[in-house]
What we know:
Structural class: alpha/beta
Largest sheet: 7 strands, mixed
Number of domains: 1
CATH architecture: 3-Layer(aba) Sandwich
Amino acid sequence: MSRKFLLSRRTVLRGLGTTLALPALEAMLPTSAVAAPASASNTAAAAAGTAPQRMAFFFVPNGVEPGQWFPKDTGSNYELPSTLESLKNLRKDFTLISGLNHDCAKANGDGAGDHARSAATFLTGMQARKTSGANIEVGMSADQFAAHQVGANTRFGSLEIGCEPGRLAGSCDSGYSCAYSNTVSWRSPTTPVAKEINPKLLFERLFGDSSARELAAAKAKREKYSKSILDFVQEDAQALNAKLGVKDQRKMAEYLDAVREIERRLDMAKADDPRDKQIDYPMPAGIPKAFADHVQLMGDLLVLAFQTDSTRIATFMFANEGSNRSYNEIGVREGHHSLSHHGRSPNKMADIAKINQYHVSQFAYIMNKMKTTKEADGSSLLDNVILAYGCAIRDGDRHDHRDLPLILAGGGKGTLKTHGQHIKVNDQPMCNLFLSMFDRMDVKAERFGDSTGRLKEINA
């Protein structure tokens, strides 16, 4: 098959204060890869193609209601628990894992503060120093460990995303610094990485020019004249489109439509700024009022970041550890953290299960978005990611850190063979899972955190 030209993977569309990365196109692939496109019926083979491997960690706070999370049976014939019902149509795209532990999230002589330790230990596997001062210390997190080795391949070594504001100083939990509760990403043992919670700012970061002055001028001009970011790259886009084949032109049109749709939703969120309304939850400008809209918008931006190879590593905090947010939209008016101390109250446990189910449904939305996003080699974005969804507290009422809830999702470029199953491992550190995820990202590590080896069960 002949083509007009070979396009560099690093090609971008440029305009005033704007750098718009491109999705993977056939024009970026070697001719041999285009001549033998992957079969739609063989996604594993497609996933082993030219698309890069990505990895993301999703964190949810305050534990779960175990009775409605963990199946009674293992293997492929387990009954999907009610909390995971929204993942029903994605069952072949994830593995449910139980039996993983985070022993460094336990007190181990440090007394109260399980919530702070939960978030601090989640991706580090290390014990947080108990302090509310500047001498915080825990360990490098798994995302940053991977970014240190492979982050140079992309514009952003990693992205840190969240949906709840939080400071990185002061005391938030029984003498532990707020840094421990409000981030899961640590660049070094003493350096937490702040998350971006404003989708408008994340959008500008992904698609803005590196010149701060030019970016500010372009932003002001766009807002003054109600311009789209696409208006500034239109000339580049038209010139490129004339060189592309029909399939790539269609993919480009779909991608630009997705960018424009996110801009529209950002504008709607700005118009619906709730700061002047009587609510009990603070939201900066640009953040949608509804939690689901916020998560899904940030999820769409994460998909765009992966699709354009702007980054290959990300963290996503649905809320801070210890979050006491209420979820009126699903009929849960009491704060999440307060409910987690349910004292075995059936009504409170039912509300916790509702929140868990609500969070999982947002994760399902992001998975579905990735599944419908096609790569240049015919695979889906979901085929080429490894997603870990969970936390470091099992039951918020008991503050236990063993047998933790964990969903491992995405195809991992055909390397995850256990999907569709519930796997019970035998009391292994969660860091064993991280080592196995590193292997699939070509990240070299003999040990990480409190690991004792690879998680062999997912290699079966």
